[in-house]
User: Fold these one by one.
Assistant:
Number 1:
Amino acid sequence: MTTTMKATSRVNGVDMTQVKETVAALKRDPSLARFQFRASNRWITGTRNSTRIADFHGVGRDIEHPRPFQTEADEPPVVFGNDSAPNPVEHLLTALASCVTTGIACHAASRGIRIESIESTLEGDIDVRGFLGLSDEVERGFQQIRMAIRVKSDAPPEVLAELANYSPVLNTITRSTPVEVTVEEA
Amino acid sequence: MTTTMKATSRVNGVDMTQVKETVAALKRDPSLARFQFRASNRWITGTRNSTRIADFHGVGRDIEHPRPFQTEADEPPVVFGNDSAPNPVEHLLTALASCVTTGIACHAASRGIRIESIESTLEGDIDVRGFLGLSDEVERGFQQIRMAIRVKSDAPPEVLAELANYSPVLNTITRSTPVEVTVEEA
């Protein structure tokens, strides 16, 4: 399906020639693997704000996206917003879903596993008494997240489940990643 | 600035009458505070996939967003994509930025602290040898995330920094949140 375009080594839509070249470059010079992703956010009002993603650092240099990406956030009315955009924890589920899916597609490609389809549904449980400051015994974040994935491919599900573990977002959430927040006067 | 629209109790664009009513309801019946957020994702090809957010559960019932939100993810060319959308770890930064910002605006409102502006920049360090499976000693996720916030308000920065800690996404990332991933054949 994804190999008909060119007589290149595309598997699952991933250019394996490029993957091999990148991997070889990072093995020669591991400092090229140090990436930094960046975002800036501006509060609009209430529960509305906007995040801009314009560039990142990787393979030894600053790289601009072809255009800046702008993503809005809001809350539904029951959480005091106008429901004009996904809320922050929904954006977190988006990050997790997209990361695990990309991880499976890419790592399957590098093992020669053909993927025909990947679909998933996610649920995250949260007790909003934590966020609202109504209880110190309730976690403020998700208590648990579940991601149920259905894949059509020529490999068994248990092999694909292993590949999900390469996901950086999955690792960031499950590992207790340090976040340094500083506030100063504008 | 945000109080001129109506003679209601809006602070920082947050309707404090509604906040008080919701808080009272959750205190009467804590089961109403059990929310579940949901997403579904569909792989397109390579590093491209699309996440749909249509509904959630909260205050004791399933609630639909006025329209489903659709969010795309891709990777830049150096990570084997076409740069058509933010990548998953950039979506994670968006989730964190929007959540901390909303948390500050809402909790400031409930304390009567007027906010004029909130802006932030975020950086997340990641060594892509982890994601690529080139090293078992390198973390697959972010090694560290930094969020630098600049606020114009009538409260000192150290008070606002406390409010950032209510953020569910911040808590989810820093706490080591359980994520259950299952894979089955489609």
Note: The mean pLDDT of chain B is 95.
Number 2:
Amino acid sequence: MTDDDGKHFITGAAGFIGSTLADALLRTGRQVVGYDNLSTGRERFLIQALVDPNFTLIRGDVLDAFSLTAAMRGCSTVWHLAANADVRFGLRHPRRDLEQNAIATANVLEAMRVNGVRDILFSSTGSIYGEAAVIPTPEDAPFPAQTSLYGASKLAGEGLISAYCQGFGFRGVVFRFVSMLGERYTHGHVFDFVRHLLREPERLPVLGDGNQRKSYLYVGDCVKAMLRVRAKMPEVFQVYNLGADAYCTVKDSIGWIGGRMGLAPKLEFSGGERGWIGDSPFIYLDTKKIRALGWDNQLTIRQGVESTVDWLLANSWIFGERP
Amino acid sequence: MTDDDGKHFITGAAGFIGSTLADALLRTGRQVVGYDNLSTGRERFLIQALVDPNFTLIRGDVLDAFSLTAAMRGCSTVWHLAANADVRFGLRHPRRDLEQNAIATANVLEAMRVNGVRDILFSSTGSIYGEAAVIPTPEDAPFPAQTSLYGASKLAGEGLISAYCQGFGFRGVVFRFVSMLGERYTHGHVFDFVRHLLREPERLPVLGDGNQRKSYLYVGDCVKAMLRVRAKMPEVFQVYNLGADAYCTVKDSIGWIGGRMGLAPKLEFSGGERGWIGDSPFIYLDTKKIRALGWDNQLTIRQGVESTVDWLLANSWIFGERP
């Protein structure tokens, strides 16, 4: 064990980022308890972890206070990554974001209090900056209005964590992510495009006009940043933007995807500036604060997109598994 | 009727601000449905309203989605004022703020959607600015960290409202209040001080060092500002700070209270900068935005404190009614 910081508890451990984090923690010899209801997480992402004696997977729901509290016993750090992670469908299920992101976070905090766990690191989102007045957007940007239920519910989670840090002596970190890419990526536009092109290689319908700018981060770089912050936990509470110092357009990414797949589909744009209601046309975060800790992203956005395409092509079971 | 804007629905209608707003709306001939579970609201505050044929009081809880939805039928404006309004006890009941302020707001929004009601005005708080980096604090201050569960839960409510405005075509207003004073004031330090001095006129225990600065607004001025904003509803969503362009210290207010009561108690300070964990030492809001609508407060802070003392002395039943 390189760092005796006790047992790590990961909610959403079978998810895209959660499973990558679990593997990274296990590689350094740490003990990890994964907690996941497997509603969107995949046990298959934990193939490596599950053969590691330092790993335990507990199937449970963050809305089940009793199961959550019992599962967390003996842990000393909580990575709260379980979430309703798809910003696009908030309006179809207005309650889901509140439950999965805000109430679930309240449950995690109470479970920590009951178990005497002090340290929490939370995956929030650049979506909470709404229509950002400042781009690249720093952590202390002007107080934004929320444009999605996803952002609103993540902001609620952030606020609860901060209040627990102030009120109960917790130490908390909020990561505001841009979109992530890389191995085990399971939703978002690169996923949708690859899936579509596997079925229908000649044409590709694209929401919006394709000029939406997107700043992606490679999941491996993301996890490295998270571990770096964990090694320097703040006394009380800090927010870190996590993103790349670059962006691409949706069209750029389509070019890279097509290149990787050896395809040149006809693009059919639905038109308009935005892909969906509540979509922010441009999330581009100022990452000076995390870079000041010595972190830098290793993969460019293009490399991130390409590694994602490679992984999706090598793991096409992911498309067939669920509708 | 001076303005045909349909029936007004007030959650927390039996509360301090809710009942004052109900009276003001009824004075202009509007129809008002008051919704209150009477847990902290007082039916006695609605003595005038209850004899008005344009007023209906429905006893119900904002957490009861069915009752709330039924009660709102036929209304066209929602004033969502029901809340757990006491910032001080959040840590004793960590779930209460989330339920009363965030989940309740989600319920109000869903009840509106079901009933086809578009307009919502919401009572939030200057507490959400936490340890404000800019004082006086404008609506677009740097993104703050939350210092209380109360603030965090109100921020969650704000975010949900904003997201509904963006996603469902609602029109929303968030009012961020300083502390209010005036007739029907039922909690806070002026209340506590008057109650204590009625029992024990010679001495007064004071939390903190008495130098905490407080910016109060008179409830009558607050309601006038709210009605002015209602008359100019934004197309989508706006935030307005509501406060006075002045402040006093807790010691100042004690002097005014003592003067009004003809007492000069010995002050016993508990010491320290803050009254309680999560108390913000100074909430002083920039109110240029609301003033640009032509509103100004009529009563000074001193007049607000004195009117409160007069009302409390004339209504001492309020001290006996509940512990």
Note: The domain at 182-214+246-321 of chain B is CATH 3.90.25.10 (UDP-galactose 4-epimerase; domain 1).
